## 1
Amino acid sequence: MTTEKNISDTFRAGFVAIIGAPNAGKSTLLNQVLGQKISITSNKPQTTRDRILGIVNFASSQIIFVDTPGIHKSKNLLNKRIVDQALMAVEDVDVILFMVDAASRNFSAEKLIISQLKKTQKTVILALNKIDLVKKAKVFELVEEFQTLHEFRAIVPVSAQKDIQVKNLIAEVEKVLPVSPKLYPDETFTDVSEKFLVKEIIREKVFRMTGMEIPYSSAVTVDAFEVEKRLIVIHASIHVVRDSQKGIIIGKRGAMLTKIGAKARKDIEEMTGRKVLLKLFVKVTKDWVSNARILTEFGY
């Protein structure tokens, strides 16, 4: 018979930073493990800009995943702050989960990350992601290559999107967590507010529905978030740096902005379980990506 003492002696809980190059699949993995979406995704790199906690409860463990922005060599102030967030997250966790896109390598980012890993004494697990897109022989080659680059506790080939070997990856993470009681209540699955998630949902739609230039010049602020009896009323602004970008996001006769709003509203309603009235505005906020004061106001 298993006693409460026995359970407490074997239960594990801890923080795990998911790090990697932009577009390595970090947010996709977090959403897959959680079984719900809290971290936005797109096929464009650098979609994630903020550190987000995703808390997952298992029979013998509680894993607090820290989804981080993609680590890369950066020039403008926004990207430097984003990378700094990712590197700072590594300092405050028990385990590091390094994700590599096996199908599309980012060698400069990998080199930068491995150089940072060599400076830490923390346990590092490597996840070779997107193995569904490469041949098995290539996966074996990558395992051998990375074994020479760093002393990883484990190397696990996975496909976060297809849920291939994700359970095996979780099992390796569980092994190296500290013995600890739960750090968060069972009902808590993230540390961010609904207002923050609304901002991220809107930003995801901008990333997914506009061209390459627009997403990296855009930010979203939630200006009003009012919960009524049967309705949530949200006013949000999409900020861009030029008038031409504003025209693209609004679209001909407002068509693009309407599409962004409709898709965002659907996701927000699914997340909150309530009807949503979403009003979107597009504003030109010149040079916000390099203005320290505005970046701070926008939460970066």
## 2
Amino acid sequence: MRKSAVRRPVMAIAMLLGALLLPLSSVLWVPGGLVADLVRRRWRMPIVRLLAFLTCWAWLEVCGIVAAIALWATRRTHRTDLYYRIQEWWCRSVVRSLSVCVGMKFTIDGADNVGDGPFVVLARHVSLADAVMSSWVIGTLMKKNPRYVLKNELKMDPCLDIFGHLLPNYFVDRQSSNVSIELQGIQQMATNLGVNDAAVIFPEGSRANDVKRKRALHALAERSPVRYERLQNLRHLLPPKPAGASALLQSVAGANVITVAHSGLEGLDSLSAILKNFGKHVVQVRVSLKWHERSTVPSGEAFVAWLDEQWLRMDAIVHSQINASAQ
């Protein structure tokens, strides 16, 4: 559904139906889920927990849609500050729902005292929750207004679709054959980035997993042997794609850089993987942010080497975090 006039009402109605049907049918899925979890010896009850979270999420989607309609009806569509506050509340509420319903725990390091921006944020990408989690960290903990480079597919989420277009984000068409247009869109997204703003991009371009890592490294070995030599020992992250990050930095000459490594969300990219991970243990999400003064970030080919160096450092952090959580 490429046309917003079709996609938005269809997805909004679907979300409203889900928000109504999930609570009404809880008399069925709560006992049914409990039985299914017990039969499979999943003592943390992942089916029930996941359905409880989906119920909260559906209602948060409905609340976000209603808020957008209310601002439109009261002719306050120019109030970008209000859209940011709604986005901050929405992301914070999703994170709280994950904590309450699923038992997900968050530990954040480096989000306080970051100073004034503007910032370009280069973040790891491993799960469906990365954008929401990072928006919560940037908006609620760092007190900055995040704008995102997002993939087109996320338009299927009504709130991300509506607020993603009301705020200065850019939805990348990953199937586009015209890379220059996409890079131009990324640069335009960062136009007028202020001291309280942060432009966020996921340089890996796709959710990381073992299969994608092997494929990406194989392609890198053929395309750029020098970079392959640097990155061949990556264990958790994908080789970063420097073009989008470089475009952002060129667009905002004075922006400092924040790199974001995190662990705990690995494998949460499909229903079966989510149930498997939620059923085994408490999901401990550890987030580590590092601030880089702009004068220490080179440009051109030197930037590619710098970015690779940061990705190797982040990979080591993630490896350490995963080992700590396993103990």
## 3
Amino acid sequence: MRLLFSERPGRHERHLLRRFENPLFAEAARTLTQAQLTEAQRLDHEELVAYIEELRRLVGEAVALGPHEQSDVILDLKERLDKAYETACRLADDQTPNKEAIRKLVDVIMRSVWKGAGNDTLAHQELQQEEAARQAHYALLENPLVADLLDPESLIAEDELLPVLLSTGDSDFEAALTLFDATQLEALLRQGESLAQPDSGSRLNELGAARLDRMRRGLDALRAG
């Protein structure tokens, strides 16, 4: 039977797709039925509906901000908007309009913060650094794997991380690699060495082997400082 996949899947369906017919996963994990797929799509839809409601509340709070609002109130709202942006990157369907709306709201809030900083040079430097870090973070989140890995309730189990990394797309892999420190990469490479053993029961293809080599080079770069 032909499986009915979504054009723009959410995090639950994406996780099933990463495992589907992937030889790096156990046989039970890489099989997929339409019932499993339909359930994942249902969960993704429920998350989307709940998100839209929460985003409307956030927009309402932003619109209601007074011209002399306390800074802690403004920064708390800005932090929740940043989290809402992260969530949008994990959801089903095209979230571009919602992400653009969040960016605009954050820009409005940051203009207020800049105004409050007055002529404080140090505050200006910190705000510039914060702006650069936020833009880099937003850009990184455009990679679905990164968005799913940074999810506080990530569906990618610890023992699934390496198989996912070894079989994902190039852009997702390179972006995800920036999330790990030397200790984490060492642990992943140890798993990779085990995975490459003839008696491991898995089939490490050329792409997987190349990815392990890329991770070794990344680890060497981190060690070199």
## 4
Amino acid sequence: MKKLLIVNADDYGQATGINIGIIEGHLRGIITSTTIMASGRALNDGLARLKDTPNLGLGCHLVLIGEEPVAKASQIRSLVNSKGEFPKTLTDFMWLMTSGQAKYSEIVTELRAQLDKLFNLGLTISHCDSHKHSHAHPKVLDAVIQVVEEYKINYIRKPFEKCKIKQLRQMFGKYPSLDISKKYLLSRMLDYYHSIFLKQMSKTSLHYPDYFQGFIATGSLTPEIMPKLLAGLSDGVTELMCHPARLDEDLNRTQTRLKQSRESELSAVMSDEAFKVIKSESIELTSFRQLAKQLF
């Protein structure tokens, strides 16, 4: 069985520096797909840059946290505050969901609005994931499933990363800035939803990669870490999430904790070490778009 690898860069359209980095990481590195923020401030800039990347797979980075909604505030009152804003943090979003305040129909309305915007721009969308992995929540996942089936999108992200604490310490032990215990705990908390995800997806015709990587490494994905991640891939399809960028003035103004680290992630996806491991491990780079074509 082959080792197939999708390298997906999140947040396209959020800032110009992110757009620049993702395009560079595709043309000069191992990025094969990206997911686009329909409400991103730099969406128009990103669209202009796509003319140079006919082989880059495009998906939708569904947003319910931190960014601007696409639907009118009057249509999604249960999801926004009095200023028409989404919850700022994942903690705030989870409270909105667990308290029962968020209406399922309004989640669907917002997700449709985001996809409509991208499709109306003439983009071909092969897959969906979500900002801050919000679709790990069963209620959001149900809405995502409903919408992507309506729009005949074949793939979504399975946002659950399997890794033992001993492996984490061996891989990230030289990076004291990375709170390994915290990242491990967060990944295990997400695992609470893993079996629910599998059960819900089993009732659909949708697809997802066998494995997911990159959650724990977020903010610490360097050229030194990348070969270790790649060397540990299993047979089957793996999605490696990344957040590369060139740190510019626009990115500095953007509300994201990932700024300087995005430069390191860009170096990682373009590193000679990454290409060497891909060759030595007989890893085949692919994209969600390429996999979707094989379904028919």
